[in-house]
Specification:
The chain has 319 residues and is α/β, with parallel strands linked by helices. Helix content is 35%, strand content 13%. It is globular, with a radius of gyration of 18 Å.
Length: 319
């Protein structure tokens, strides 16, 4: 199955999940670390009042416990990322992947990275552990734009593009089964053309599939910076370009789980500051929170296509 087909299975809410208390989601993203080495102007991470420290990373024992619950409930896909850059804690990410694939028997484990920390050693360890999908997020057409938008030194841009090449070489030389993908934000006008040229030359030849995403509103928490950059965000999270869905009801609350590095479970895929949290996995089980009264109340508002007065109100206001 292609990555875009997998994305569509999550973003296109099936009839079986269009209810306040749906079955377990197909997919869950877990933020092993909330840290990131980028400062992207469009990212919700910019809103965190206190940026997490290494000591705040999720403990492996806790990760194993919650993923056992997810597996028992029927979750078949685990993403080893959420908002933070997973390779900021590379050893933990590799250990988590190894556990999911070789002990728990999770059918599909995927990872999205900005690529700048994806050394050959880390790439090889992830693939050897059985990682099913590795996706690179490439959102700048040259190092100058990279430094402006990502807010970090341009040398990381070169490292990220090199990692895409290295991943293909390592996979092919060793016969690993990891599928390689890349995504990019689709901007407007000249920027769209420049990104297309970059992808054609330095990304597409080395991955199995590349696709575009709209500039999300990120829960309406990064709008000021988005306006400074000159790009207009879409309402809510409408999925990928070529398979967009309506902002309401938002699939994020029905077909995908989201767990922050601190064990808080969120109803939103862009919950950087905790405003969308619905429960603490240290205190309750995964399915207890998935079916909690707070979560169900939000889902009812989405099903009625009127989220006025809810935490989701601002996010869909762009429509």
């Amino acid at each position: 199955m292609t990555i875009t087909a997998r994305i569509d299975k999550v973003t296109h809410i099936p009839a079986s999940h269009l209810m306040p208390d749906p079955p377990a989601p197909r997919s869950v993203k877990i933020e092993l670390t909330g840290r990131c080495n980028y400062k992207c102007g469009f990212c919700a991470l910019r809103t965190r009042g206190r940026q997490p420290k290494r000591a705040d990373d999720m403990k492996l024992a806790f990760f194993k416990r919650i993923t056992r619950e997810m597996h028992a409930a029927g979750v078949v896909e685990i993403g080893l990322f959420y908002l933070g850059e997973p390779l900021m804690s590379a050893n933990l990410t590799v250990e988590a992947c190894d556990y999911l694939k070789n002990e728990l028997g999770m059918p599909y484990v995927f990872l999205t990275t900005n690529g700048s920390l994806a050394t050959d050693e880390v790439l090889q360890r992830l693939m050897a552990a059985g990682l099913d999908s590795l996706k690179f997020s490439i959102n700048a057409c040259d190092d100058t734009q990279f430094a402006e938008i990502m807010g970090v030194k341009p040398s990381l841009y070169t490292k990220a593009l090199q990692a895409v090449r290295s991943a293909r070489r390592i996979r092919d030389e060793n016969g690993y089964t990891t599928r390689l993908y890349a995504s990019s934000i689709q901007y407007d006008g000249e920027q769209e053309q420049r990104m297309a040229a970059l992808v054609a030359a330095h990304v597409a030849p080395f991955v199995d599939e590349h696709y575009y995403l709209p500039l999300y509103s990120m829960g309406a928490v990064a709008t000021e910076r988005e306006e400074e950059l000159g790009y207009r965000p879409t309402a809510g999270n409408q999925g990928r370009i070529g398979g967009l869905v309506a902002p309401l009801p938002c699939w994020s609350a029905f077909t995908e789980g989201h767990v922050r590095h601190d064990g808080q479970m969120s109803l939103c895929c862009f919950d950087a500051d905790g405003r969308f949290r619905v429960g603490d996995l240290h205190e309750h089980s995964f399915m207890e929170i998935w079916h909690s009264a707070k979560f169900q109340a939000v889902r009812r508002a989405h099903l009625g296509k009127d989220v006025s007065g809810t935490v989701c109100e601002d996010c869909v206001a762009y429509g």
